[in-house]
Amino acid sequence: MTDPRLTPTLALPLPGARLRPWRFPDAAALAHHANDRAIWQNLRDTFPYPYTAQDAEFFLCLVADSQRDLHLAIEVDGEAVGSIGVHFKSDVRRRSGEIGYWLSRKHWGKGVATAAVQEVSRYVLASFDVCRLYAVVFATNLASGRVLEKTGYELEARMRRSVVKDGQMLDSLLYALVEEK
Ligand SMILES: CC(C)(COP(=O)(O)OP(=O)(O)OC[C@H]1O[C@@H](n2cnc3c(N)ncnc32)[C@H](O)[C@@H]1OP(=O)(O)O)[C@@H](O)C(=O)NCCC(=O)NCCS
Known about the structure:
8-stranded mixed beta sheet; binds coenzyme A
């Protein structure tokens, strides 16, 4: 059986949009679209800001070497403009995966992230031995919470003062999509 991490393209129900594997020639587009403080503000500090060409190359090497996790480019009109991935957990949490994503500000508000989260969640639950997908969202990130709600994720917990971001203590919200399988 083909490894489902080496996924082919996944169609999205939006004109010109699809999910596909990352490629080394995406480096310039990645560095351009990822270099945004408003994106960094909502992600872990391992996501750099400023986001340089070297950071893009480092990420693409990491993805190429990754045997375990799923990493896909969000493509709109032929250009990689965002990223979506699932980190598969191990040991007693081996049937769980953590979903993460970001999208270029240029394409916000058009339903792209909602379509991407919907499709990746469907794909992972259908193709892997995973019954739980979850995301941890800073409580200030209303757009991401809304994306998760629209795609069927349920709010399970508010983790109080669990995040230090940009010098601020924030609550974070745990959302999960759970299947009986
Ligand atoms: C979060 C993010 C991926 C959303 O992408 P997007 O393609 O614009 O999302 P969608 O268009 O699919 O849906 C956004 C929803 O949030 C809503 N929304 C946006 N800003 C909002 C705000 N400030 N308050 C409340 N709702 C908001 C939109 O109205 C929409 O909901 P609706 O369809 O019910 O109207 C994008 O803003 C992003 O990349 N942010 C930075 C990185 C990030 O936060 N990643 C997720 C970390 S958990």
